[in-house]
Design a protein that fits this description.
Elements: H1 2-17, H2 26-48, H3 53-59, H4 62-95, H5 101-133
Length: 143
């Protein structure tokens, strides 16, 4: 029990230390990249007539839910990898080595995937609304 409390205390302290240490730009870069990716995927989903992303995950059957989940993970893979790489660099600079891989993964997910998960549905709804009001913009103009 004491080991778990020590782990969680160090984990939380390290996470909060990243906010004002070196490489704080990633707290803006990763969510911005997730926002852009969610916007692009939301527009594609609206054009295809798909329901919002989180709704699909929550209300789909097992196979469809897994496919939808994979679609989001695939869309954010570069963002997640970038986040882990930036945290490796941070840890090497601050701790002298890569000591806490779980922290790197958690931070990458918090900054890269969670914003995507939250924003893709509203972007799909907004794009669907816009496409219904302007139907000629939803058509592919290429031959």
């Amino acid at each position: 029990m004491l080991l778990a409390i020590d782990f969680l205390t160090r984990f939380w302290t390290d996470m909060m230390g990243r906010a004002d240490g070196p490489m704080t730009f990633r707290f803006f870069l990763q969510p911005t990249m997730a926002l852009i990716t969610a916007l692009i995927d939301g527009i594609r989903a609206a054009r295809a007539g798909k329901p919002p992303y989180a709704w699909l995950i929550a209300h789909s059957s097992g196979g469809e839910r897994l496919a939808t989940w994979r679609e989001g993970v695939t869309a954010t893979t570069r963002i997640l990898l970038l986040g882990v790489v930036m945290d490796v660099i941070y840890q090497v600079r601050v701790y002298g080595g890569f000591r806490y891989p779980l922290e790197a993964f958690v931070l990458a997910v918090l900054l890269g995937f969670i914003p995507y998960l939250i924003l893709r549905g509203p972007f799909t709804r907004l794009a669907g609304y816009w496409l219904r009001r302007h139907p000629h913009h939803g058509k592919d103009s290429r031959p």
